[in-house]
Amino acid sequence: MTTSRMRAEIDEQPDALARTIEALLPRASDVGLLARDTRQVLFIARGSSDNAAVYGRYLVESHTGRLATLAAPSIATAYRSRVDLSGVLAVAISQSGKTEEIVETLAWAADCGARTVAVTNGAASPLAEAAEVALITEAGDELAVPATKTYTTQLAALAVLALGLGARVDRADLRRAPDEVRRLIAETEAHEALPAIVAELAAVQGVVVSGRGIAFGTALELALKIKEACYLHAMGLSYADLLHGPIAVVDERTPALLVAADSGPTLPGTIALARRVRGAGARAYGIGGGDGLAGACSRALPGPDLPEWVAPLGLIVPGQLVVEALARDLGVDPDVPRGLNKVTQTD
């Protein structure tokens, strides 16, 4: 069977991450200088970039002591409201840097008093040119519509952003990420649970994907990939929100896919959720979470051997491999999902 472009780009992630981290770590001081008179962070993004922003938000709030929020671009582009953004660092994220709504919203933020940063794979893009500091990822050309290497390199850029904002973490953990992703790709591909999970997901119409805290963005991104590349209903939820009602949709016909770092304060809750899902007669699939989550799930794939703050750079990778294999099993070309383009424009 011919290898999909998506699968090839999954394999390119270790090198793309290594290039991005090497290029951007020296820029952490530029972020720190720009942000010295700011007190909070506003993330501006859509789609997979918005899921990366969720990671950025949790990372900034948990490790730098700054308030971080997600922007509603329509406030700028549709309502054209004037908001006082003095003391705000606006961070716009776009793989292409060409989405007009995101470029316009960053310009609006600057006009409202914010300092501005761009995270993009487009070095000469309008978004990069609009920002005071541009963190250019080194993913190379990405041809498959579902974002893989552009997403993980965005996460690396946001880790550098957090370092620039004074995150109390060891940057050596970030440097280990490319090799860990390389190991994880090989281990997942050879893991006996991969074809079993794919076969079982191919027989259902929907799945709930859940994580919490720093892993929440991974759950949202994996749910998005399942929807756009496999055409299955996928609900991405924090497990705290899942327990407030939507848990009722999890049953023998709707499994749960749970993601967690191998350590951190949200791991015990993820393990407890896996046990509850199985207790309700549903299947629970785990990604990451160490032996604890694997033991509580019906089937599980390993996650990265990285601390929680940087684990999402690897945690999404087994999910990407599941999605690519599932799409092909369902007869869908994962490279060109119907109705989607590489650059999406919104009003």
Explain what this protein looks like in three dimensions.
Helix 4 (47-63) runs parallel beside helix 8 (149-164) and helix 8 (149-164) runs antiparallel to helix 15 (312-329). This protein is globular. The chain has 15 helices and ten strands. It is an alpha/beta fold and 347 residues long. Helix content is 48%, strand content 15%. The strands form two sheets. Strands 2-1-3-4-5 form a five-stranded parallel beta sheet, sandwiched between helices. A five-stranded parallel beta sheet has the order 7-6-8-9-10, sandwiched between helices. The model has no long low-confidence stretch (mean pLDDT 94). Strand 1, helix 4 and strand 2 form a beta-alpha-beta unit. The protein has two domains: 5-169, Glucose-6-phosphate isomerase like protein, domain 1 (Rossmann fold); 180-329, 3-Layer(aba) Sandwich (Rossmann fold), CATH 3.40.50.10490.
List the helices and strands and how they pair.
Elements: H1 5-11, H2 13-24, H3 28-34, E1 40-44, H4 47-63, E2 67-70, H5 74-77, E3 88-94, H6 100-111, E4 115-120, H7 126-130, E5 133-136, H8 149-164, H9 171-190, H10 193-201, E6 206-211, H11 216-230, E7 233-238, H12 239-242, E8 256-260, H13 267-279, E9 284-288, H14 290-296, E10 299-301, H15 312-329
Parallel strand pairs: 1-2, 1-3, 3-4, 4-5, 6-7, 6-8, 8-9, 9-10
Helix pairs in contact: 2-8, 2-9, 3-8, 4-8, 4-11, 8-15, 9-15, 10-15, 11-15
